[in-house]
Amino acid sequence: MKEALFNFFVGFLASVILMPFVIKLINKLKGGQPILNYVEAHASKSGTPTMGGVIFLIGSLLCFLVFYNSHNFLALVALCSMLGYGLIGFLDDFIKVRFKHNLGLRPYQKVIGQVGLAVIMGLFVYLNEFCGDGIWIPFINKQWNIGWFIVPFVVFVFLATTNAVNLTDGLDGLAGGVSFVFLAIVVILLGINIKNLEYVGENIAYISELKSLMGLSAGVVGVILAFLCFNSHPAKVFMGDTGSLALGGYISAICSLTQNYLLIPTLGIMFVLSALSVVIQVLYYKATKKRVFLMAPLHHHFEKKGCYETKIVTIYIVITAVVGLFLIMFAI
User: Fold this and answer.
1) Which of 37, 221, 243, 268 has a Cα-to-Cα distance from 321 of 20 to 30 A?
2) What are the domain boundaries of the chain?
């Protein structure tokens, strides 16, 4: 647990120090975020530096290198997932700011990249001795083994999660705040799980791998908190797709590598609601030419209803924290 705390402080302090330089570099590259013309409430945010999520990649890589050890293979895989999805997001952001429009990569290009990385992760999970084909079911403490079907299941988890986090990134501090709480709770749950495994005398190598994964995750939590110091309302920088896809890739990875897939629809309930609101809006509009929500994703609907941006962000974070505390209560 001490290593996790050290990782957290290293991630936080390094990112707080580096973030102003990252913002200056983005400004020099003229990396201001163009705002969609139908989001009237955000017109004043046009030109705010984007691609700030690159700090997630830098800070997390630094944490990994500083606390490198011989039992960090799962942590390395999780980091590679973050870097891979972050790279796709970076390319998307770069095209947006380079050509001054809000389209970025074509949808099929993003899908190809996301699916490709997800398939690699699915095969790794299926073949790795520490992961396998199991899905851990919380509350009843049972494992459901689904054989090779775990590969397409992991692909679905990665695609759904990365895009859900991406859709949630629409207000200052929203995606970062929810991801911060999500990963903080995951670190606590990993710590509880490690203690339980040590008590029953589980495989030492597996426990060491989980400790490294917990340590890296704590470092990522520190990096996100540092980013929120600059991203909270009014934001000085946006994470962009660089950050949202990187966070989605990391969240998907740690849940897949520990068989905790069902943490995503429970602890990540606000991500799920963001994605569902878009799906419902699109399908209902195609069928009836009418809208269920004033605007999707859901947080924009609340904005249209007159809720303040900071209030929406606070509610999303509080709900995530309450669900997380509920999960911890059952894990103890």
Assistant:
1) 243
2) 2-269
